[in-house]
Structures are given as structure tokens and as C-alpha cells.
């Protein structure tokens, strides 16, 4: 396998017809003669974007010409520039070789802080260019050889070997695809390497994911070290599966479990699968529909005990709760101080589990100190083990489904890996996808500090710059409307600002989550929730408004796809894949939207794809459509309705697993929407947005939820194409209309 990592030469004279130009070009030629690519540039340009070349290069040669040192002042400037560049590089990459190339200057002319970062000091005309080239190439190759983490390295070697395989997969390194035209297309699209490295676990030299042996195990250990945990298990079927593994390793039928009501559906699936009895902690919610933190008092053991006593199925269970699962980083980026949670709970819960699907980056930056589950220098709890499950594919550079489980042991307990692996095996395919394993390996290696810290800092920095840009646009528009980015009022004028600015303080209006405990919650700035006009944080509607669904549809037709859409909010993320181009394009697309909205442009012009699918909107103006929807939301007081339905108290009528069993046994009825009140659901009911389950098997429909479903039905009839999606609803055509049903437990 040949990788492209050129040697970058930075020399003012690279193209000049003078002695130093000739000298440096001779060196470049000699390097190329040895088979290594060279990239020659004459200046640094923008330092930080140039330093980003460190990810593409195998070494840098920085020249210091005599001319640059012609006076003390000039020398000082040259050294300053050199230092700035070296610092920029080393901030991201401690290992890439750096060489200085001088005419007559020697190390005497450079300060120690620069010298100590160098791999060599080359002097023109002292050695032959060929000799110098070989020396540089040797250093560059040594550097490249250290890059690949264990599993990826083994996979490269394997794919290179070119051995014939008799094992599955049956496509035999891609050859099967070549036998048909569509197969050829597939092969050409994904390419040889992806298919050659798609192997099965019969290949001994790659190790086994399922038993954690060989290079796979070495990579898991490497990732455990990088993520500051005692153990790391790679998972190739998403954090949905990681969650089930943690649960099945810990929870058995009849156990009490304490769960964030704002949890991912995989946690609810875990409840059903393990036969647990859930007691829920209730998060706050503001009227934008943004879900806030669970207040700190909810974690008090006394409060949890009260909840257990109030639960008809839990009250007689004598053992302590087996697990606590918290969504650590909500969709909108609200985080908890884990040390405060650990202190509050003490040893009243057997195992602590933080669903950090959105938070694998936190351990790499002090900004998030204590606001994530497991990290450097964090105290061990006395008794409970701490688990963190992370979707490396969401925030870091993993392929879809790349996920990992991290474990911190306690003072008194270690993790029995054999025992844990029984649950791991229960949920892992015996044919794991090796490209996903490799991406787990790479995602971890990429985050090795200082490079990982730099990546996270850049994401935070870009997200702050985005917020500053949005505020600048707002100011410039003066009294005219503009979008707001949800977050604290205080925002640093430049740079990273202060971590304390991002703590949620009690009773601040911007968040609307009420009286929060001091230091308990932080907003992760790299999640940016954008608020559209029309609704305020108290749930009061303006006369006019712009429902977010229209904005995100508009953005989608203009090539900007956002992560999640709420009623008057949508949200974007500044992952480590973010670029200035991406967020600036969003800002300009939003300006186009504003322009088209203010002019009330007809939809056929501004949403052509939408209109092609739904011609009835053809002649409506953009502003008029927004207003029609806004009026409907307002008439139904929808902000309050959705808040109430999520915060209303649910008394379970059955254990979730028992209600689900009714479905497996077909002891269910498909109940029409209008007759649902009081009935027990057998399924998970999840409206999108926000994608948070509203009812879980075994709970009864109350009036508010039925009202909401009636609203959704009416809305869907009035505004086809802008449907409120509710997973769990069964739709059937009855007399030419769409009727809705829910599978409920048979009476
Ligand atoms: C996305 C998500 C999951 C599931 O992760 P996948 O990797 O998509 O399976 C679990 N929990 C939370 C909070 C999530 O947002």
C-alpha cells in the first residue's frame, strides 16, 4: 500500500534563480529521486491553516536564509515566525519531523525552545543533496511507520498479503462482484481496498473481536489508554447495542433500574429485554421544546426511594437499584457534573451508566472537566462501576455503527471481563464488520493528545465563531428579525472565552429550566440549537412565526441538512469534521431564507422539490405558509401541550416486559386514536421531533397525550408533506381518510 504523504518545503527562494533557490531545488529533486513526493511553497500564508498540512505531510523543511537574518530586528522577526509555526505544528502533532535548512546560520542563531523540536539542521552545500535526502526520508518513514494503530496496521498487512481466501464472506475479497454488471458498479464505487479488507473472523492474524484477542485487543487497550479508562470494548453495531450489553451484564428480571426519562430507545429496549422495573428521573423542559437537565434533587437517594415506593411494581423489591442510566449530553448539549452525581448517590446504586453517545470528545479537553463520565485524574467511586457508552461515529471519525464501551473500576470492585463478555457476545454478530473495527481503532488514535485536544478545541472555537457571526448578522439587521442561537447571553468577543460562561445558572431566562444547582450543568457549545422566531421561552406565541420545519426543508433544498428539527428550533453540531466553509454556508443559506421569507416568494420558486411532490402548495408564499402553520400551532397552544405531555406523571399499569410479551403473544388490540385514553400501550410511542419516547409499554394513555395525537392527525391532514412523524402509530386508510391506531394490551 502506497500512501501519499509529501515532504513540505517552505522556502522564500523555492522558485528563485539564486544560489539558495538552486540549492533547495536540488534537495527537492533528490528527495523525489528517492521516490518521495515534495511540495514546495514560498511562504506560510495563514499559519494555522498552513499548519493543518501536518495531517497530509511526512515532514517539513523550513529554510532560514541569510537574508532573513540581515539585521537583529530581521532575525528577531524570522525567529518569531519560525516559533509560531513550530508551535502551531506541535500543538497538533508532537511527532512529525521538522528540519531547518540554513545557508550559513547554525543552531547558535536559534533559541532552545525551537531547537528541541527539530529532527535535524541541514546545511546547504556541505553534504550532497542525495545524502541529505536519504537522511530526511529515513526520518519521514520512521514517522509514518509509527502512525497506524494496532488493528489497522494488521489489516493493512493482511490486505497487502494478497493471499487467496477460502473463508467467508463469499464475495472473496470482492471478486464475486466482478461477475455481474451491477456487481462491477459496486466494486468500482467502493473500491478494491474496502472489499479486500472485508474479511471474516477466521483470519487469525487480525485477532478476534468477540474474545478480544490479538490486534483487536491491542487496539482496545490502546483506546482505553487514550480515553483514560480502565477498559474499552469496541462495538460494531452502534451505541444502541453498547447500551444493551451494559444492561445485560448488570440487570436481571425483577431488578429496579433508575433511568433518565429522556433516554434513547435502546435503553427502553433494554428495560423490556431484561425484565427490569424502571423508575424514572424527570428532566426539565422549556417551552421551546428543549429538554433540560434532571434537577440535582432528583438524584438524592431519599427522592429515589420515594419514587420506588410510589411504583406498584417496585415497592416490594428489597435490593438496591441495579443501574442508573443518564443521557450524558442531551440532544441539545446539556451535560451533568458526574462527580456531583457520584457524590449524591454514594453506593445506593450498584452500577452507574452514562449514555455518552454524543460525548466521546469530552475527555480530551479541560473545558469539560468533570462534565463527562470517565477521564484523566478522576476519583474512583467507592463501590459502583462506571460505564460510558459512546458513539464514535457521531462526534468523532468513526464509520456508522462505530461505538465503544468504557469502564472505570471502583475502589472495591474490578470488572470481571469474562463475565462481562457473556453479555457482549449476546449482542454481537459473529461476523463483525472489520472496516468498522478499524474505524474504532483510528477514531481513538486520532484523538491521542495533543492532536485530539487540538481537534476538540477547534470544534469549540468554530462553534463560538459561528455564534459570534450569527450575533453580528442580527445586529446588522437591526429591528428586523433574525435567528437566535440558544445559549448563555454572555459570549466571549474572541477565542474560547470562559468555561464558566457555559454553566447553567439558577433561574436564568435563556434556558428556562428553573432553579438549577450550582455547577451541576454545562452546555456543550459544539451543539448549536438555532431558534426561529414565533415562540418565546415561556411558551407564548408571537403574532407571526416561522416554524422550524419550513426552515429546515428550505435548507435541505439548498444543500444544508441539519441534525434535528423541533417546533421553533433546529440543531447543528460542530463535530471534529466541521469546516469554516460548512458553517458559513449555513449562515448565508439562512440569509437567503430570510430574504425569500421577507419577500414572501412563492413556494414553486423557493421549494421546487417540495412543490413537485405536493403541488397544492405551488402558489402559496413562503411567509404565508409559515403563518398558516404558526396559526395552527398557536391555536392549539402546542408548546404547552408538548411540554405537559412529556412532564406529566406516568403511573405504570404493567411492567414494560409484560406489556411487550402481550404483543409477542398477539394479545393486543389495535385501538383507534379517539378511544385511547386509559388504555395500556404495548408499544413504544415516539414522536419526531424530539425522538424521545413518550409512552413505554405498560403505561396508560392520558388525556394530554391523546389530545396531542389528535392534533398531529389534524395537522397531517391539513399540511401533507410536513407530517409530524410518530413512531408506534399504525396508519390505515379508512373511508378515504388516514386513521390512526395504537397496539394496546387486550382488555
Ligand atoms: C444515537 C444515540 C444512541 C444510539 O447510538 P447508535 O450508535 O446510533 O446506535 C444511544 N443513546 C443516545 C443518547 C443517542 O443519541
Explain how this protein is built.
This protein has 747 residues and is an alpha/beta fold. The chain folds into five domains: 7-145, Rossmann fold (3-Layer(aba) Sandwich); 168-201, no CATH class; 207-448, Type I PLP-dependent aspartate aminotransferase-like (Major domain) (Aspartate Aminotransferase, domain 2, 3-Layer(aba) Sandwich), CATH 3.40.640.10; 452-635, Aspartate Aminotransferase, domain 1 (Alpha-Beta Complex), CATH 3.90.1150; 649-745, Alpha-Beta Complex (Ornithine Decarboxylase, Chain A, domain 4), CATH 3.90.100.10. 38% of the residues lie in helices and 14% in strands. The protein has 24 helices and 23 strands. The chain has a seven-stranded mixed beta sheet, with helices on both faces. Strand 3 (59-64), helix 3 and strand 4 form a beta-alpha-beta unit. Helix 9 (238-248) packs parallel to helix 10 (265-274). The longest helix is centred in the middle third of the chain and has 27 residues, at 451-477. The radius of gyration is 29 Å and the shape is globular. The N and C termini lie far apart (65 Å). The model has no long low-confidence stretch (mean pLDDT 93). The site of pyridoxal-5'-phosphate has 11 residues, from helix 9.
List strands and helices in order, with pairings.
Blueprint (H helix, E strand, L loop, with lengths): L6 E4 L8 H15 L4 E4 L5 H5 L7 E6 L7 H21 L5 E5 L9 H4 L4 E4 L5 H19 L2 H12 L19 H16 L17 H13 L4 E5 L2 H11 L7 E5 L4 H10 L2 E5 L19 H10 L12 E5 L6 E3 L1 H8 L5 E5 L29 E6 L1 H4 L7 E6 L8 H10 L7 H13 L4 H27 L6 E2 L35 E3 L3 E5 L16 H10 L6 E2 L3 E5 L6 H19 L4 H4 L1 H6 L8 H14 L2 H10 L8 H9 L3 E5 L13 E3 L14 H16 L6 E3 L2 E5 L2 E9 L2
Parallel strand pairs: 1-2, 1-3, 3-4, 4-5, 7-8, 7-9, 9-11, 11-12
Antiparallel strand pairs: 6-13, 10-15, 12-13, 14-16, 16-18, 17-18, 19-23, 20-21, 22-23
Helix pairs in contact: 1-5, 6-8, 6-15, 8-15, 9-10, 9-14, 10-23, 16-18, 22-24
Bound molecules: pyridoxal-5'-phosphate.
